[in-house]
Amino acid sequence: MEQENNLEEIHPEEIERNQEPPAKEPARQYYFMEKCRRAVKKEEQRLGRRMTFHTETFGCQMNARDSEKLAGILEAAGLEASDSEQADFVIYNTCTVRENANNRVYGRLGYLHSLKKKNPAMRIALCGCMMQEPGVVEKLKKSYRFVNLIFGTHNLYRFAELLARSLETDGMVVEVWEGTDQIVEDLPAQRKYPFKSGVNIMFGCNNFCSYCIVPYVRGREKSREPQDILQEIKRLAMDGVVEVMLLGQNVNSYGKTLAHPMTFAQLLQEVEKIDGIRRIRFMTSHPKDLSDELIDVMCASKKICRHLHLPLQSGSSRILKAMNRHYSQTQYLELVEKIRGSMPDLALTTDLIVGFPGETEEDFQETLRVVKTVGFDSAYTFIYSRRTGTPAASMEGQVEASVVKDRFDRLLKTVQELSAAKAGRLTGSIQTVLVESVNDQDPALVTGKLDNHATVHLPGAKELVGRLVQVRLEECRGFYYYGTIADDALQT
Ligand code: SAH
Ligand code: SF4
Ligand code: F3S
User: Fold this and answer.
1) How confident is the model at residue 261 (pLDDT cuts 50, 70, 90)?
2) 3-state secondary structure 31-100
């Protein structure tokens, strides 16, 4: 783990002098980090050992980045990271995009309770999207009294303060906000990988796709100021990061609400200029907002990866309309054609939902048709999940589970066959691989990613991790390549 942002803003002596915490952020949170640090030291003396923490992410890449921020605060508070849930402070960063993500959390909480019974010093915290859903906090307060701390998505930046409060009491500390228009910069984060990092460029979502709960739990779309984003990336680059993933629910609408509006394509051009950054990725692109300017910038770029995640959701124009996606089947196909016309080697991936209310076999056939026409490199397939409070939840024609399951199986089979057919197309060529880890199963191998996000295994040792190397792709095995280093001249 790599600590981002130094902690020079903490002035321990100030805490003595100033009884009152500073009102301004992020100074206020640095004050509370110091306060936590003292409480942790005391607790460690009582326990006669180090205090450990464990973070668990249940959701998307943004959720994962939030967990790195939580870990940054916990390290700043003096706790030691642990891979195991048998830790003194366990925090679940929850997701509620589909019901099963939600159920997993309740399931795992029972297990955490059993751990807490064995370790009375243990504290359990819950945060993230699920906490923003009506009724969840009430349920936790009623039936999960052993949880120590609960907060939501809008006040994550106040984690140090909430942690300090929680460390002072055995009771349950709860703070969930309806929303915020504040973005607090310059708090610590603890990166999972030293060589790559997610970077939030915006928060929230304004699209209100009719099935989706994200706009309700993440609030309105807010873009970060470009200079804050660029500064963060420059700092990451100085710290050894070579790949950044720009994160937002709909990156294509970046910058529209800024005082000095800027397009996503313009932001990308600025990121491109940062020395040390070798690869730029982004996620997610909404098809309705993907501009010609973005395609031009991608084409001209040496750093933007040849990969686009472009969620289709459904191939039926009728269903797309009911989903409030603002594009038709034809518009999606035309967009793909335009992109491929400019970048034939680009990998395209997507998200698909089966069983949206009112979906008929004909609608489903349209989805299959688009999937076959486009030939995605890979696709995430989801069974529609009814989310309370979204417009789709009260739509007529909820599809019967057995019908959905049958469609889902057929879609998955088609998706897998098509991506298998695509998978080997780079065999025989030499490509750049960012080596990410030593292989789990075989320590003589390392595993990395191509620019198009395909996985490559190659002989090598841990010294290669974090480096960009030229690899000859010898063969394709299922969904990954096996390769060897093309020459001794490593790129980085
Ligand atoms: N902002 C991104 C998606 C975020 S959620 C975008 O618009 O592309 C990730 C994926 O979860 C979505 O693309 C969608 O396919 C799926 N999803 C969202 N809500 C869902 C629901 N109620 N049921 C099933 N899948 C859902
Ligand atoms: Fe949900 Fe649509 Fe926003 Fe994506 S764009 S987060 S699917 S509402
Ligand atoms: Fe889940 Fe929240 Fe992401 S609901 S998908 S963690 S924005």
Assistant:
1) very high
2) HHHHHHHHHHHHHHHHHCCCCEEEEEECCCHHHHHHHHHHHHHHHHCCCEECCCCCCCEEEEEECCCCHH
Contact 85, 57 (CB under 8 A): no
- The pLDDT value recorded for residue 479 is 82
The best mutation among 132, 202, 207, 353 to test binding of ligand 2, ranked by most ligand atoms within 8 Å of the C-beta, falls on: 207
Within 10 Å of residue 460's Cβ, how many Cβ atoms? 22
Q: Is the dihedral of CA 465, 470, 475, 478 positive or negative?
A: positive
Ligand 1 interacting residues, C-beta cut-off 6 A: 97-98, 211-212, 214, 249-250, 284, 286, 311, 313, 351, 353, 382, 384-385, 387
CA distances from 305 to 142, 337, 393, 440, 445 (A): 48, 18, 37, 26, 24
Ligand 3 nearest-atom number relative to CA 62 = 3
Position 16 confidence tier, pLDDT thresholds 50, 70, 90 = low
Token pair 């309105």: residue: 220
pLDDT tens digits for range 394-418: 999 999 999 999 999 999 999 999 9
pLDDT digits 0-9 by tens, 39-69: 999 999 999 999 999 999 999 999 999 999 9
User: Which of 60, 63, 212, 326 is the pocket-test mutation for ligand 2 (most atoms within 8 Å of CB)?
Assistant: 212
Which residues are near ligand 2 (CB < 6 Å)? 205, 207-209, 212, 214-215, 249-250, 286
* Residue 101 Cα: closest atom of ligand 3: 1
Ligand found nearest the CA of 354: 1
Tell me the average pLDDT across 135-164: 97
What are 377-387's pLDDT values in tens digits? Answer: 999 999 999 99
Whether this model's pTM surpasses 0.90 = yes
